[in-house]
Each structure stands twice: as structure tokens, then as C-alpha cells.
């Protein structure tokens, strides 16, 4: 999860946390990679902020940079 969050943030500039939005976006990526969602499909993921859960993971994220 931490590696995915760092990769996503580096590519998009959007901060994630591991409890909700990190899991959501990782699951979406896995769904596309597995073929459950067709490449080229339009997906909407709502990121409502909620970065409080990020504090617990902050040191691990910094170590991956």
C-alpha cells in the first residue's frame, strides 16, 4: 500500500491516505489490470480529503521517496 501511495502521489500530485482513498484507488488499478474493468473505461473516484489517517504512515512514505 505504501509503495502504491508514493507512486500515485509522484505521478499525480494528489495526496492519499491508506485507510480509504489509498485502498479505493489501488482496488481500481487492480480491477483495470485484471480485466474486470476494461482499459479505456471512464471511472470516477471521489477523493474527499480526509488525510488524517496518513499520519500513521508518514514515516514509511518518506522512506520510500
Automatic annotation (TrEMBL):
Gene3D superfamilies found in the cross-reference section: 3.40.50.1100
UniProt-listed InterPro entries: TrpB-like_PALP_sf
Name the record gives this protein: D-cysteine desulfhydrase
Organism: Pseudomonas aeruginosa
Amino acid at each position: 500500500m505504501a509503495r502504491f501511495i508514493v507512486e500515485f502521489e509522484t505521478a499525480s500530485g494528489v495526496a492519499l491516505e491508506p485507510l480509504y482513498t489509498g485502498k479505493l484507488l489501488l482496488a481500481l488499478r487492480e480491477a483495470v489490470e485484471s480485466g474486470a474493468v476494461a482499459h479505456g473505461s471512464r471511472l470516477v473516484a471521489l477523493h474527499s480529503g480526509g488525510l488524517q489517517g496518513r499520519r500513521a504512515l508518514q514515516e514509511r512514505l518518506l522512506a520510500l521517496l
